[in-house]
Specification:
The complex is a heterodimer. Chain A is globular. In chain A, strands 2, 4, 5, 6, 9, 10 and 11 form a 7-stranded mixed β-sheet that branches. A 4-stranded antiparallel β-sheet of chain A has the order 1-3-8-7, with no helix packed on it. Chain A is about 0% helix and about 50% strand. In chain A, strand 5 and strand 6 form a beta hairpin. By secondary structure, chain A is mainly beta. By secondary structure, chain B is an all-beta fold. In chain B, the strands form 2 sheets. In chain B, strands 2, 4, 5, 9, 10 and 11 form a 6-stranded mixed β-sheet that branches. Chain B has a 5-stranded antiparallel β-sheet with strand order 1-3-8-7-6, with no helix packed on it. In chain B, strand 9 and strand 10 form a beta hairpin. Chain B is globular, with a radius of gyration of 13 Å. The N and C termini of chain B lie far apart (about 40 Å). The chains are: A mainly beta, B mainly beta. Chains A and B meet through strand 4, strand 5, strand 9 and strand 10 of A and strand 5 and strand 10 of B.
């Protein structure tokens, strides 16, 4: 199956700093990537959808200036959590798809802890 | 928005069969997925249904009825390693994939 690599797997940062999370499709070209956030014992909540070369589409309630998403190539999307606060601590997961009719493959997830 | 409902928890014994139901209401429909997720890990793909009927894949089967907005995941010959959270996810008319809250399945010896 297709491989999506997400880095880092876990990160601890201080309040007020920014953290960048990378999502790479290793053996296919991902036209669309999705970013999710998951709090403990809760479901995956879609944050935004990004298409290569265009601006990301954010879900209602997600601050686009706080969660910067860049999808500059067909194999890489990045999520930057700016001015992180403890309430941003969560499990962030990306998924990538080759097109509208195919399944989405997930990265390993990033455990972010803001102290 | 999307509304995807599934039971919170289920418990079964090793070797048994468990059926996890999922009902959904979405704006458009382009397929229903089932994922397995172990604590602290990313979801792994189990099955995909876009047409009505049953899809069988080894010990796992998934059923879909689009007219009823209903799906189930059937786990047969349960093993201890099947203890996990099972997520029902629906792709809507805009091809966004939204998830239910997940069903935690506990398999007992």
């Amino acid at each position: 199956g297709a491989v999506v690599s997400q880095h880092p797997s876990w990160v601890i940062c201080k309040s007020g700093t920014s953290v960048k999370i990378e999502c790479r499709s290793l053996d296919f070209q991902a036209t669309t990537m999705f970013w999710y956030r998951q709090f403990p014992k809760q479901s995956l909540m879609l944050m935004a959808t990004s298409n290569e070369g265009s601006k990301a589409t954010y879900e209602q309630g997600v601050e686009k200036d706080k969660f910067l998403i860049n999808h500059a190539s067909l194999t890489l999307s990045t999520l930057t959590v700016t001015s992180a606060h403890p309430e941003d601590s969560s499990f962030y997961i990306c998924s990538a798809t080759t097109g509208r009719t195919t399944e989405a493959f997930f990265g390993q997830g990033t455990r972010l802890t803001v102290v | 928005g999307q509304n995807i409902d599934q039971p919170t928890e289920m418990t079964a014994t090793e070797g048994a069969i468990v059926q996890i139901n999922c009902t959904y209401q979405t704006s458009g429909f382009n397929g229903l997925f089932w994922y397995q997720q172990h604590a602290g890990e990313a979801p792994t793909f189990l099955s995909y249904n876009v047409l009505d009927g049953l899809e069988e894949k080894g010990r796992f089967s998934s059923f879909l009825s689009r007219s009823k907005g209903y799906s189930y995941l059937l786990l047969k010959e349960l093993q201890m390693k099947d203890s996990a959270s099972y997520l029902c996810a629906v792709r809507d008319g805009d091809y966004k994939l939204s998830f239910g809250a997940g069903t935690t399945v506990t398999v007992r010896a």
